[in-house]
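Appendix C reproduces, verbatim, an entry submitted by the partner laboratory led by Prof. M.T., so that reviewers can inspect both the input and the predicted structure.
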Amino acid sequence: MKTIKIPVSEEITKRKKYIINRISERMTYGVQLYIDIIVKNDITEFKEANKFQKYIGEKTGLPSAFVQCARDMGLWMYRSYKELHRDWERRIEKLEKKLRKEKNKKL
């Protein structure tokens, strides 16, 4: 097996890094906007979140595929948060029941 080394211009690498950084910045901003809207309106369905797709696209300048990805990520984050929150509430309820039982035993 032979290895071939191809020289890459530093300017090309810098330009590509700049483009990737710009896209990831706008993508992060899009996810943040979606999460703000999702939390404010308690949205958990794609159909409801799609109403804001045009607004997010105009605000961030992202193509529709990236806006959809931001929507998916925002919804996933919110849903997982809600699921974890329900689990935490269940644990608290169980602990409170245990505490009440122990308290009643001592009396």
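Residues 33 and 55 are 10 Å apart (CA to CA). Additional entries are available on request from the coordinating office.
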